[in-house]
Design brief:
With 118 residues, the chain is mainly beta. It has a domain of 82 residues. Helix content is 10%, strand content 36%. Strands 4-1-2-3-5 form a five-stranded antiparallel sheet, with no helix packed on it. β2 and β3 form a beta hairpin. The termini are far apart.
Length: 118
């Protein structure tokens, strides 16, 4: 009797987490260095910072945002794989769960009077 080939086991937790993981494509903003964790908690990937996020991958599809967002990220991100056709030159990739807490900075441009509502 032949033994069955060894199967790669995946836990239910891993399967459920797959649908919740996002890959964020963007560039780290090195000019903004917040102090502390901004109430987002600590992460082993490194301190919290901000990145200009252009797109995200969820499951197998990449969604390009209509306008890039400035979002909090942990660490410096990872360089894309050489075969990642969705990444642009110089971009980094951060992996996060969809339910993770994040902070968005909304930048506006205009005259001082318009920004102050004068």
């Amino acid at each position: 009797m032949r033994a069955a080939p060894a199967a790669t086991l995946t836990t239910l937790t891993e399967v459920l987490a797959l649908g919740r993981l996002l890959s964020l494509y963007g560039r780290r903003i090195s000019d903004v260095a917040p102090r502390g964790d901004l109430g987002l908690g600590l992460d082993p990937e490194g301190p919290v910072g901000f990145a200009l996020i252009r797109a995200y991958r969820r499951h197998a599809g990449v969604v390009v945002l209509p306008e890039p967002l400035v979002l909090s990220v942990f660490g410096d991100g990872q360089p894309p794989d050489g075969d990642d056709a969705d990444a642009q030159p110089g971009e980094r990739i951060w992996t996060a769960a969809a339910a993770d807490r994040a902070m968005r900075l909304q930048l506006q441009q205009g005259s001082l009077a318009a920004l102050l509502g004068i």
